[in-house]
Every structure is written in C-alpha cells, then in structure tokens.
Specification:
Layout (H helix, E strand, L loop, with lengths): L1 H20 L14 E7 L3 E9 L4 E2 L11 E4 L4 E7 L3 E7 L4 E2 L10 E5 L3
Antiparallel strand pairs: 1-2, 1-4, 3-8, 4-7, 5-6, 5-8
Length: about 120
C-alpha cells in the first residue's frame, strides 16, 4: 500500500511539471511570438505592448492605445514591416527587416499604420 501511495504522489507531483512545459508557448515581456509583430510604448520593449498581431495587415494603430506612441518593435515574422507616419498607409516612415528587433525606433512616437510585405 505504501508503494502505491508513493507512486500516486509521484504522479501527482509530475503533473505540474508537464503543465509548466507548455508555458514556453507564451512569450516573455520584450519578445513577440513567431510570425507576429509586437510594438511597445517605450524603448527597450517596455511599457504597454500596444501592438501584438499576426503579420499581415494593413493595420492602423488607433486611438490612445498606441497611435503616435510606438518606441520599440519586435518583428518575429518572415516579412518586412513597412511603417507609415499616418493612418491608411500614407507618409512612408521606414521598414523593419524580417526577424529584426529595434529597441529604439529612429523616429520615436510617430508611427500610425503598418503592413507586412515580402519587400520594402
């Protein structure tokens, strides 16, 4: 009986370890999941993560939640992220290469829209 209890206890203790193994799918702060584009309010991937989307688009960054507030970006996709100064993909701002991370955008707090493309 004692052996059965030990086996049951060992099995119970092993369950949390298996559950924690799946936690690797969630990305830590400052990193974006594969195929996604993430943008933060502050430099060095800090502050509010205003954008966390699957690469594609076009995307307008609307309202108080990121419009003209983007300071750092993680492009974890296979596409270029073409950034614009204004809504509706107008006012070309620049490009982020596939799998490039930029801790401080060269034109801080100016981006309003973006799209993922196979070219820049």
């Amino acid at each position: 009986m004692l052996t059965r209890t030990k086996a049951a206890l060992a099995a119970l203790l092993a369950v949390p370890a298996l559950t924690l193994g799946f936690a690797g799918e969630a990305q830590a702060d400052g990193y974006c999941g594969a195929g996604r584009v993430c943008m933060w309010e502050d430099g060095n991937y800090e502050g509010s993560r205003y954008v966390d989307v699957v690469a594609g688009g076009p995307y307008d960054i609307d309202g108080w939640n990121g419009d003209n507030e983007i300071s750092s970006i993680d492009n974890a996709s296979d596409d270029y992220i073409v950034m614009y100064d204004n809504d509706d993909l107008t006012g070309f701002l620049g490009c982020v290469q596939p799998h490039q991370r930029i801790p401080e955008l060269w034109r801080n707090d100016e981006m309003e829209s973006f799209i993922a493309r196979s070219f820049c």
